[in-house]
Design goal:
nine-stranded mixed sheet; Arc Repressor Mutant, subunit A; 4 domains; Rossmann fold
């Protein structure tokens, strides 16, 4: 049987969907055989612990031609822990070998998320841009449509997944995503697939999710007929749809050549006890062991757990009245508790000192960088001056025109953080606008607008603005999915951090990457461009010194009891411009009066 996916199409981004038992994982492992056979590099993330069979022939005994390194799991060449994600990601990124990352032994979803966040971040940062197929089974675990932990590892992991599927091709990534439930996989992630392999799907919600992909990629009429056929598909049979290549067909996938380690045992069947020939990993094994030891020694949660364990032992010992009290060495237990507490405090203090030292080191390097840029500009200027002297006048004129047509990028030395002082903003550009040249560091325009908004509020003296304030300045709906997704991406990139449920601030890394905000000569003139005409009338009335709501409304030519006035005043309050001392009055907040 010919393999249904063309060789060239194997380098497309794929979504492989199907219910449990439909053959989804089996199909993917068969595709990996074809990738490995043509010497393609593969990184397979395996939460189920079933991919190890690629190392054996179908008999389950003879080594197969494919020998990917296995990290973690019962058949791993090297064990992993939830703290080893960064070192494994860095090792895989700088290697030419294919590998399987088996998460099945980590135990909890939280541990898997912690590992995957560090793993994907290191993998994306350290990759050498060589083509690599990144195949992630149970992808909805790491990129869910409904995010419960909006301020923790889950949100950062979703942002990292979106970064890889959206911008990963420039770094060589070819992502394949597998899921039983396309309805619970993030649509921002699913929509990036170039092709779809759909096996049996019985849930209408899951078929609707595929329908959303079809609307963005293919023909609706063809999609309707395809979706209607999915509930009756047999194991290993499905629909292959690659709109960009003109492929839409019912297909059957052939049997694997390697051992079927993902097969569910039949009733009464004893699973075959299989061992793999180990692969010599050399120094990497010692390096990973050291990472695990250091992580546990510096983990405050582990130290706190040790304190709780010792406290529990002390309480139990005190309750055992049947034994003579003098046999219980309470002093030793209390000393151990005190030692653990001291060790915890020392670790926290050392960590805080290390962070402070790193920040000082970075800041100390900035003058050298700025001076280097200044020196480079001086050398370029001198060369241009000498060139003009040496060339004829007509050539000099052409050089001048070319220089004007291609403006130079602003040097790093000009990217200084604005600070407010006595109502004026140093380095302001009255009436100016952010240009395309100011958007860098791989940021999309919406991401740059959010960072620019945070820098603007920072210049206004609001270091932790609310989401509504950031959205208003960025001209985006703060409660909309578009805004929330962009903020999540920036959080995953380490440029934005959350302060509680409703506030955020820009990190040092974000300040370096952020475009220069458009600022006016005073705080008041910086606020005006953000306001609508009715809001400006109320703002001017407040500037005039009115504090009574009735006086403010009269000066703004509005009805103090009308919904129009109340709504505009509430909008100014949401922006952090207006405060309410009591029910009948309103005043400008102190930072506006600077």
């Amino acid at each position: 049987m010919a393999y249904p996916i063309p060789k060239d199409a194997l380098d497309d981004r794929f979504a492989i969907v199907g219910t449990a038992g439909s053959g989804k994982t089996y199909l993917a492992l068969g595709a990996v055989e074809h990738l490995l056979a043509r010497k393609s590099r593969v990184i397979l993330v395996d939460p189920l612990g079933v991919a190890w069979g690629l190392r054996l022939c179908a008999d389950g005994k003879t080594p197969s031609p494919f020998q990917p390194v296995i990290f973690g799991g019962p058949h791993g060449d090297l064990p992993i822990t939830e703290y080893a994600g960064a070192i494994i990601g860095e090792a895989v990124a700088t290697s030419r070998d294919s590998c399987i990352v088996d998460l099945s032994a980590l135990g909890t979803k939280a541990a898997e998320r912690r590992f995957m966040l560090a793993f994907l971040t290191a993998l994306y940062r350290c990759t050498d841009k060589e083509p690599v197929h990144l195949i992630i089974d149970e992808a909805d675990m790491f990129a869910p449509q409904r995010l419960m932990d909006k301020d923790g590892d889950a949100a950062k992991l979703l942002g990292m997944m979106e970064t890889i599927v959206r911008r990963g091709r420039a770094k060589g990534f070819v992502p394949w995503l597998l899921t039983q439930r396309p309805a619970v996989l993030s649509k921002d992630v699913l929509s990036q697939a170039d092709g779809l392999v759909a096996l049996k799907l019985t849930s209408s919600q899951d078929r609707d999710a595929i329908g959303a992909w079809i609307e963005g990629q293919g023909d609706k009429a063809q999609g309707k007929a395809m979706l209607a056929s999915l509930p009756a598909k047999q194991r290993g049979s499905g629909v292959l749809w690659i709109p960009g290549r003109g492929i839409l067909a019912d297909v059957d996938f052939p049997a694997k050549a390697t051992f079927d380690s993902s097969r569910t045992p039949k009733r009464g069947e004893k699973r075959q006890d299989t061992t793999l020939k180990p692969i010599d990993l050399g120094a990497l094994k010692d390096k990973l062991a050291k990472v695990e030891t250091d992580a546990k020694a510096n983990d405050p949660a582990a130290l706190k757990a040790e304190v709780r364990r010792l406290t529990t032992e002390l309480a139990k010992a005190s309750q055992q009245t049947s034994q003579p009290v003098e046999k219980i060495n309470t002093a030793a237990i209390e000393a151990e508790i005190a030692r653990a507490r001291t060790q915890l405090q020392e670790r926290v203090t050392a960590f805080q000192a290390a962070v402070a030292d790193a920040e000082h080191a970075v800041m100390a390097m900035l003058p050298e960088i700025r001076q280097a840029v200044t020196n480079a500009e001086s050398v370029i200027t001198d060369h241009l001056r000498n060139l003009k002297k040496a060339l004829p006048a007509a050539t000099v004129e052409n050089i001048a025109k070319y220089s004007k047509a291609i403006p130079m990028k602003a040097p790093v030395a000009q990217r200084q953080e604005p600070t407010a002082h006595n109502g004026l903003v140093p380095g302001s550009n009255p009436g100016g606008r952010t240009t395309n040249a100011a958007v860098g560091d791989g940021l999309s325009r919406p991401q740059a607008k959010i960072l620019e908004s945070l820098m603007w509020w920072h210049a206004m003296g609001r270091d932790t603005p609310t989401r509504v304030q950031v959205g208003i300045k960025a001209k985006m709906k703060a409660r909309g999915g578009h805004f929330k997704t962009r903020v999540s991406e920036l959080s995953g990139m380490g440029m934005v951090a959350y302060d509680g449920a409703d506030r955020m601030h820009i990190t040092q890394e974000g300040k370096v990457a952020a475009p220069q905000p458009s600022l006016q000569e005073s705080v008041v003139e910086s606020i005006r461009p953000l306001l609508s005409a009715p809001q400006c009338k109320i703002f001017d009335a407040l500037l005039a010194g009115h504090t009574s709501r009735s006086d403010i409304a009269a000066d703004a030519n509005m009805d103090a009891n009308g919904g129009h006035f109340k709504t505009r005043l509430s909008e100014l309050s949401s922006m952090g411009i207006v405060d309410y001392p009591d029910k009948s009055s309103a005043v400008l907040q102190d930072w506006v009066k600077q």
